[in-house]
Queue: 2 jobs
Job 1
Amino acid sequence: MSTSLVHPEVVDAHIHVMPDRVWRDPAAVAAADPWFAACHAGKQRLAGEDDLLRHLDEERIDRAVVFTWPFADPRLCAEANDWVAALQRRHLGRIAGCGIVQPADPGAAEELRRCARLGLRGVGELNADAQGFALDGDELARLAALSTELDLPWTLHCSEPVGHAYPGKGTATPDRLVRFLDRAGGLRVVAAHLGGGLPLYAHMPEVRELCTRVWFDTAALPHLYRPSALRAMATLVGAERLLLGTDFPLLGLARYRRALDEAGLDETELGLILGGSAAAVWRW
Ligand SMILES: [Zn+2]
């Protein structure tokens, strides 16, 4: 079955595009931000606006949820937010820009309010390892409550507690994620990278309760799992909770289309994963 015929709208819910300051001097950003440096060592490339538009055009993606990066420096987060808001204004309806805040910074709440005033559609990809914040901390719970009020859903980087090591994997494993969700109130949360495997535990009644406002994106799936994982995830949580996310520029869409074609999903499930499920998160 060809995935291109299934749903009229294709949404890529996990894309990283770098703001101007990173382009001006990536070495300076890398020198001050060990996580950024580790993730962009070697041949891992950066994407700018032109790369993003080429990705959307060539892969026939209708909408993109665009993040910058989980910078540790709150000033760089603020600059990135101005930049992604301007990007969104240039491509209204096609690009949903997400803000980034440094939860460990005392100014994070004000920056969240500023993201809402800028018209950004969500927050992400927050990363506890990259930014050095506690997933079970009081401050994160307060920021989650404020984001609920501002209607800014979060995308959170998650990690598998098992399997091979790789740059950017981190320690945001399902046990830690659940401690955050326990205090996240009504916030809509996208647990990136299939939530590090959390959908399995969502079959425990108490965890299922915590997952009522959680979606799971496919970012980096071809590097981590066989396509059969998609079938299993769709059975575990329902395709309406699964979102296509490529992690571009890490990967393009072709590898995901192959995995989706091989996963044994029906047309309804494919349509939801490719684009249908995303509307409930970002409400366009
Ligand atoms: Zn991630």
Note: The chain is about 45% helix and 10% strand.
Job 2
Amino acid sequence: MSLTIGIIGLPQSGKTTLFRALTRLDDTRGGSGGGNRPHQAHVTVPDTRLDRLSAIFHPKKTTPTSVDFLDAAATLADVEEKGALGKRVLGTFRSVDTLLEVVRCFPHPYLGEAHPMDDLENLELELLISDLTVIQNTLERNRKMAPDARAWFESLASVLEEGARPDASLLDGPPDSALPFVQSMALLVAKPGIVCANVPDIMLCCY
Ligand SMILES: Nc1nc2c(ncn2[C@@H]2O[C@H](COP(=O)(O)OP(=O)(O)OP(=O)(O)O)[C@@H](O)[C@H]2O)c(=O)[nH]1
Ligand SMILES: [Mg+2]
């Protein structure tokens, strides 16, 4: 089993530091993880139970679970053009299974005091706006979309317009005619998320 986790967060929140800690990779010098080349790492998950089973049954092949981590930050141009995260960066994260949202909880030398709740709100808002744009473009481009699919996307868009995350019952219930669009959109709000409060002792909470 393999999982792809995208590390996302406002600039200087500690994404690359966390990426290095999780992957033990140290080839991230001189880069923020942003720009043209995101940091990527494939990590196998150590599991002593698998080693033991493999030693007992001697299978031809033993494949441990793996996790792919992706760390991409906004470029300066993206930041100026399209909010802190940038269109291109959010596009990159559409391919991941899970978002790991890093929130700065430490005082920064030039950004100053931490405002984690405001930062998390801004980060969430950028995800919502990005999805809203994708939905609106899709509705615009597919004028002959089935009425039930259109109605479902419109109700999703109206929740996002209010700056809220849609609840699970709405996300889980697209009509069949909407499914091909849902798959190609890879909505960010539909992905499971983990919020990482970046304090000296890392705290994680999942939703
Ligand atoms: N004091 C303190 N500093 C931290 C912590 N985590 C990261 N930093 C520092 O904060 C700065 C930014 O860290 P990065 O990991 O590069 O942050 P980033 O989110 O990848 O930054 P961008 O890619 O530029 O958006 C660096 O100087 C880190 O050393 C922390 O938990 N405590
Ligand atoms: Mg970085």
Note: The chain has one domain: 2-206.
